Amino acid sequence: MKILLVVVIVALVVGALIWLRREAAARAARELADVRADAHRWYERLGGQVMNLHGDEPAVRQALVDASERYNAAGSQLEQAGTVHQYRLARETALEGLAYARAARIALGIDPGPELPPLTAAAGAGELTRERQVEVQGQTFKAGPQPGRETPYYYPGGRFQGRPVPAGWYSTPWWKTALGAGAGVLGGVLIADALFSPAFADPGYGYEAGYQEGFADGNDFGDQGGADQGGDFGGGDFGG
Predict the structure, then answer these.
(1) Which of 42, 76, 108 is the last residue of a domain?
(2) What is the average per-residue pLDDT within 184-189?
(3) What is the pTM of this model?
(4) Spatial contact of 71 and 43, defined as CB atoms under 8 Å apart
(5) In total, how many domains does the chain have?
(6) Of 93, 78, 71, 72, which is closest to residue 32 (Cα–Cα)?
(7) I need a labelling partner for 12 at 20 to 30 A (CA). Which of 3, 29, 53, 124 fits?
(8) What is the C-alpha to C-alpha distance for residues 46 and 64, in angstroms, rounded to an integer?
(9) The sheet that has 139-144: what strands, in order across it?
(10) Is 18 exposed, middle or buried (0-12, 13-18, 19+ CB in 10 A)?
(11) In which band, very low, low, confident or very high, does the pLDDT at 103 lie, cut at 50, 70 and 90?
């Protein structure tokens, strides 16, 4: 009798484990299917925007170029995706492309459409609410909340060297070209600190903490890089 009872208990335990494993596999499959469908939905929406939007203004053309790049990148990611994390990355790329498409619609003067889900990379970066112009290492940089001939490059928000870069329109994509243009990490840090200085009293982003960290880091770089770099950082050009 005891042996029979043990056999029954073992059978119940094994059956429960098999059921739990199947349920876990089913939940994982449903989650994967859901994130795959969600990523494809945003990707297809981006494709429609890229195909249908056109414009000759520099801000429109540049925003659509960036949107098209994200569309191609998201398509490649979706082709290779096989996990929840990979599909979420593809979704993020598609959403970033839609942010550029939305910027193109704003530059065209048409309805930008509904708000998009927030970008993970832009968390805490905020957005510009005031125009500003600064000079860093002999070059002029402009930024503001609206597109224009002098600020044709949109950025949906993110980080450069750990510093928040708010969403807005910029005169040059310095966050991408700092290294390629020879400005290096130090140059990019100086540009970020100058453009987002608390002196502008811009309430659109919480840059104070990042600015203070950047100021200290910039001084460290300046001490290592020579008197000219330190002078640019601390002089009147820095403050705009």
Answers:
(1) 108
(2) 66
(3) 0.74
(4) yes
(5) 2
(6) 78
(7) 29
(8) 11
(9) 132-136, 139-144, 168-170, 153-155
(10) exposed
(11) very high
